[in-house]
Amino acid sequence: MNFRSIADLNGAVLSMLPKIPRDVDLVAGIPRSGLLVGSMVALQLNRPLTDLAGLIERRLLQSGARRAEDRVVDPFADAKHVLVVDDSVRSGSALREAQETIAAADLPWKFTYAVAYVTPESRELPDIFAEEVPLPRMFGWNVMHHAWLGKSCVDIDGVLCRDPLPEENDDGPRYEEFLRTAEPLFLPTVPVGWLATARLEKYRALTEDWLARHGVEYEHLAMLDLPDAATRRATGAHVPHKVEAYLESRSMLFIESDPHQATAIAESSGRPVLCMATQELVYPRSIAGNAAAVARKFASPWKRMARGAAERVFDRLLDRRRVRST
């Protein structure tokens, strides 16, 4: 799994800036994720920003006040070159649809198409791209709306809703009130395969009611069958319970809120874990170590070129920039 966070996206935009023609007058984002990239690019270039419909209707997205000497009375009248941006290309259908929409509108400007992330198969579709990211891949700005959730295990507290405060975590009336009224955080808009939580089984009804009220669809809900929170703490059951659900579900990914638990789940399961708090994809040490082990085989001077090639291959396969050694 190749994961990119919003911080990664900002880095991709910065790396793409030198490739963008300096005569671009206007930036147009392809809704919806393209507007995120478009805003980043427009701010860096200090150019007006619009979306695809706004481009056709000659309407800008509202922006903050700029210096008087930078203000443009009618950017559409003055424009000659428009940069159309999106976050990623897979099949290219969204990009082609945007191109067809622009062509049908018979707009008078020159167009350049830029995309932050492409696959090896789609790299020829945009004029400019920042990085090639092979499938399977997932982005931090739409992870809870991705079809991968159907093949994933997802934690509840700290992911779907906030964590309880210490004073709410009394395994009694205050905790029950938290379960009824917890504010949502990252609500999924697609069905989830498994919800795996360290909440106790005796709170299943309250948990199911909260999930139903917030429209969370799921196939399985794995809870801890222990008598009380004191027993849960004494046995340290949080991680083993989640690992068991991860392995039983045969999921491709676990989404966890706590960095320490994310590391422990990855190491115990031998599978990747996405930590929502840090926006990192955590791999078990056994996988992370494979890249270094193979690279060490190419230690002699005459094999330095081969060693560098091997490291680049493993970086690409394992996305070592996001690998955390446990």
Task: Provide a quick synopsis of the model.
The chain is an alpha/beta fold and 326 residues long. Helix content is 38%, strand content 20%. The protein has three domains: 2-137, Rossmann fold (3-Layer(aba) Sandwich), CATH 3.40.50.2020; 143-282, Rossmann fold, CATH 3.40.50; 287-322, no CATH class.
What is the CA-atom radius of gyration, in angstroms? 24 Å
> In the residues, how many domains can be counted?
3
Strand order of the largest sheet: 10-9-8-11-12-13
Mean pLDDT: 88
Query: DSSP helix count?
Result: 12
Helix and strand pattern: EHEHEHHEHEEEEHEHEHHEHEEHH
Poorly predicted regions are 291-326
Description:
The chain has about 325 residues and is α/β, with parallel strands linked by helices. It has three domains: about 1-135, Rossmann fold, CATH 3.40.50; about 145-280, Rossmann fold, CATH 3.40.50; about 285-320, no CATH class. The chain contains twelve helices and 13 strands. The strands form three sheets. It has a six-stranded mixed β-sheet with strand order 10-9-8-11-12-13, with helices on one face. Helix 9 (about 240-250) packs across helix 10. The radius of gyration is 24 Å and the shape is elongated. The chain starts with a strand and ends in an 8-residue tail after the last helix. Mean pLDDT is about 90; it is low at about 290-325.
Topology record:
Layout: E1 2-4, H1 6-16, E2 26-29, H2 33-45, E3 49-51, H3 52-57, H4 75-78, E4 81-88, H5 93-105, E5 110-118, E6 128-132, E7 137-139, E8 152-154, H6 173-181, E9 192-200, H7 204-213, E10 218-224, H8 229-235, H9 238-249, E11 253-256, H10 259-269, E12 273-275, E13 280-282, H11 285-296, H12 304-318
Parallel strand pairs: 1-7, 2-3, 2-4, 4-5, 5-6, 8-9, 8-11, 9-10, 11-12
Antiparallel strand pairs: 12-13
Helix pairs in contact: 1-2, 6-7, 9-10, 11-12
